[in-house]
Design brief:
9 strands, Rossmann fold, 3-stranded antiparallel β-sheet, alpha/beta, binds adenosine-5-diphosphoribose, SIR2/SIRT2 'Small Domain', about 230 residues, 6-stranded parallel β-sheet
């Protein structure tokens, strides 16, 4: 069975109604990254950070996977697929993808603020109770925090993503500006000669290898074209 890795970013969820980070009207236009997506920001004003992610979690409960998520999931019928996503939403899973590596954490999960990487203290919030507040404690007695990898924090699952890139037959990149490392560096683990497809309506600033096929569409239209054209006799 042919092996495919799909690296996705915020653009994957645009058609579901979730904002990107760096395009016009992106999340970082409205919230200073330092305040809501760094350990320093959390230490300085934990309530603000809890509120920021509570709002995003409640918003996530109100949106659904789009056709692009469903087409990504449908590839599992024919190929061995691993989705490596920078997204913290659960839309890939809700669309049916069964192998998803979340490099930057998961919005529906919370963890210990003393030991954020210790999976023993990670809890999944239920849609019926999607928010946390000051005084909600993890099992180690520390304040619960979002299970999100903030800027400056380690990206423990990058090793799993690099292993997933070994001996792949195709690499697909959807909806990421390839601005943030180490995630963007995954591009360089594609074995030589492996076809690389980039689905993005815009140009990306990153320097791309010459063999990248840029499909200039949104995620759904781009995945449809990829499947109909490039994977037809794959
Ligand atoms: N379909 C596909 N791609 C789209 C669409 C769409 N409908 N609309 C926009 N895009 C593209 C944009 O052109 C851009 O290249 O999605 C990309 C979004 O880029 P960013 O906003 O930078 O998001 P992302 O690359 O996922 O950011 C990476 O940065 O802030 C951190 O942790 C955060 O995971 C995030 C990381």
């Amino acid at each position: 069975m042919k092996k495919i890795v799909i690296l996705t970013g915020a653009g994957m969820s645009v058609e579901s109604g979730l904002a990107t980070f760096r395009g016009g009207g992106g999340l970082w236009d409205n919230y200073p990254v330092e305040q809501v997506a760094t350990p320093e920001g959390f230490a300085a004003n934990p309530s603000l950070v809890l509120e920021f992610y509570n709002k995003r979690r409640v918003e996530l409960l109100g949106v659904a996977p789009n056709e692009g998520h469903r087409l990504v999931a449908s590839l599992e019928e024919k190929y061995d697929v691993t989705v490596v996503t920078q997204n913290v939403d659960d839309l890939h899973e809700r669309a049916g993808s069964t192998s998803v590596i979340h490099l930057h954490g998961e919005l529906m999960k919370v963890c210990s603020s003393r030991n954020p990487g210790d999976l023993r203290y990670v809890r999944t919030l239920q849609p019926s109770a999607p928010t946390i507040k000051m005084g909600d404690l993890a099992a180690d007695g520390s304040q619960l925090r979002p299970f999100i990898v903030w800027f400056g924090e380690a990206v423990p699952l990058m090793e799993d993503a690099v292993v997933a890139m070994r001996d792949i037959d195709a690499f697909i990149i959807i909806g990421t500006s390839l601005n943030v490392y180490p995630a963007a560096g995954l591009l360089h683990y594609a074995p030589a000669g492996v076809p690389i497809y980039l689905i993005d309506p815009n140009d990306v600033a990153a320097v791309l290898p010459s063999n990248v096929v840029h499909i200039r569409n949104g995620a759904s239209e781009g995945m449809r074209r990829l499947i109909d054209t490039y994977l037809a006799d794959f």
